[in-house]
Structures are given as C-alpha cells and as structure tokens.
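Is this the right way to post structure tokens for a design question? Let me know if I should format differently. Anyway, here goes:
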C-alpha cells in the first residue's frame, strides 16, 4: 500500500512539474510575442528643420505602434561614410528594420546590401537609394514639387526674367530631381533664362556665399530658385546685404518655419510644403507593416502644397 501511495505521489509531482514547465514556456512565448519592434531611423543630419520634422513624425508613429525607435544622423551633416557606419551598427545591434534617408544615393549602396544580407528590411524615405533592395520608396515626387515651384515663380515673374538655381548635394537623387524639375519647367517659358546653376550643398551659409558671388556676376537677376529652404534662407541673407530685398524673388522648398516667417515679412516669395512630418510617420508605420508581413506599395507618394503670401498665415498659426 505504501509503495502504491509513493508511486501516486511521484506521478502527481511529475504532472505538476510538466504543467509548470508548460506555463513557463507559454509565459516566455507571450513575452517574445509582445516584444516591441526595434526600428532605426537614419537621417542626413539633425540640423536642417526638414529632417527634424521627419524625426518628429517618426517618433509619433513609434509611440502609436509601440516601436522601440533609434534615431541616428551623421555628426558631420550629410556624411555618407558616417551613414554607412550607422547602418552597420544597426545590423550589429540587430535592428528589426532600418528607415533610411541617404545623403549619397550611390555611396550608400554597400551598406544597404549588407542590410539585405543580414535579412533586415530597409525602408527608403525622401532620397532614393541607387541600388540594393529596399521594401518601398516613400517621398514626395521631387521633380513634380520643383516643377510646381518653378511654375509659380514663372507666373510671378510675368513669364520673363533671369534666374539663378541653387542646387543640392551632388550625388543625391533628390538634388538631381529637384534641379531637373526646375530646369525643364523654366524651359517652357521663352523669355525666362537660367543664367547660373550652382550647388550650395543644402547649406545656408554656403548658399549665402554662393549667392553673393553670383549676384556680382549677374546683377540683373530677377529670381533665385533654391532646392531647399535652408539654401533659400542663405539667398535671403545675401540679397538683404546687397540691398535688394523685395527686388529679387526667392523660392525654396520644405516649408521650414524661418522660411514661412520670411515669406510673411516679404523677404521670400514661395516655398513648398514637402510634409516632412508625414514622411517620417509613414516611414515607421510602413516598417511596422513590413515586419507584420502586411502588403505595402512599392512607391508611396506624399503630397505637396505651394506656400506663398496667400496661405502662409495658416502655416504660421
């Protein structure tokens, strides 16, 4: 009888241990299932208000979807080598997905290929990557945005005048598309002439210096088309120092706060809202969809809006 009782007790203990193990495994599985996705956002820099807006949008999406978001950017603005290292670090730290805005469309390709080899999906935002595999491309149509701005400039000039173009960073597909959109659109107007086109690398200080030099070479210029608002603001400073504020039309893109204020003050004429916040938000949201195996489009287009004196108050308020 004692032997029988002992056998029953042993069997009960085995069953309890088995149940406990199953509960523990279930608990561990549950924890693994609720573990947040780790997404890394790599920006061109954390100086330009456009990229700060992208960062804010990404952070808002991360909050909504419970994503563990890491935001990185080169210490030296727009530095491709630093961006490559940041992609490599993200791979080492086992990020679940990378949301990437490359400074150099071609130069970043080796890093994207390393992410591909590691099985980490890359969500391409704003500036198109020139190679490797990305899940989608999320951006405004830069060519179309530039064309919109150029058309507005031409109309405000009465379809005649001399124009300077300030280009973005060489090697960035966004810079290529923005310049080409402007050039092609201005070419439609017989009495509009592009007298100079030069890079200022998206940079305000550099744009100020470039504009000063170009104004000396072309004192009769009527308008300046800048491929972003940072360069447009550099042009604003150069034009102001030359005593030509109000006499030269200045246009940019991005709808940065200081550009909006310059339009309100009559120092700048046009900008284009490229929805930086939305680009960041949709970038992280799309990363979550990819990681959840949800279908996404190969190309996600963000809308743009022209901003001038007629609607600038709505943006400032």
């Amino acid at each position: 009888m004692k032997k029988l009782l002992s056998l029953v007790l042993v069997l009960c203990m085995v069953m309890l241990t088995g149940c406990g193990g199953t509960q523990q495994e279930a608990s561990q599985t549950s924890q693994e299932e609720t573990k947040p996705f780790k997404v890394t956002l790599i920006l061109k820099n954390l100086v330009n208000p456009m990229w700060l807006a992208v960062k804010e949008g990404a952070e808002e999406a991360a909050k909504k979807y419970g994503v563990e978001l890491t935001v990185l950017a080169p210490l030296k603005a727009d530095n491709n080598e630093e961006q490559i290292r940041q992609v490599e670090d993200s791979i080492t730290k086992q990020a679940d997905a990378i949301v990437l805005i490359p400074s150099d469309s071609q130069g970043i390709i080796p890093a994207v290929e390393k992410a591909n080899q590691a099985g980490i999906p890359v969500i391409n935002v704003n500036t198109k990557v020139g190679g490797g595999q990305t899940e989608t491309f999320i951006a405004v149509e830069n060519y179309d945005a530039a064309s919109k701005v150029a058309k507005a400039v031409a109309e405000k000039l009465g379809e005649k005048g001399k124009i300077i173009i300030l280009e973005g960073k060489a090697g960035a597909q966004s810079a290529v598309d923005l310049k080409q959109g402007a050039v092609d659109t201005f070419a439609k107007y017989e009495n509009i002439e592009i007298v100079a086109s030069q890079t200022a690398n998206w940079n305000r200080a550099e744009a100020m210096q470039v504009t000063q030099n170009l104004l000396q070479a072309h004192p009769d210029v009527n308008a300046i088309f800048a491929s972003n608002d940072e360069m447009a603001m550099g042009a604003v400073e150069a034009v102001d120092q030359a005593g030509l504020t109000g006499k030269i039309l200045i246009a940019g893109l991005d709808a940065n706060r200081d550009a909006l204020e310059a339009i309100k003050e009559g120092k700048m004429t046009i900008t284009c809202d490229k929805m930086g916040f939305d680009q960041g938000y949709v970038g992280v949201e799309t990363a979550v969809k990819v990681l959840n195996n949800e279908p996404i489009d190969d190309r996600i287009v963000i809308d743009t809006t022209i901003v001038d004196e007629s609607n600038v108050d709505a943006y400032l308020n």
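Format looks fine. Someone answered above. Worth noting: Confidence is low (pLDDT under 50) at residues 1-32. Residues 162 and 193 are 5 Å apart (CA to CA).
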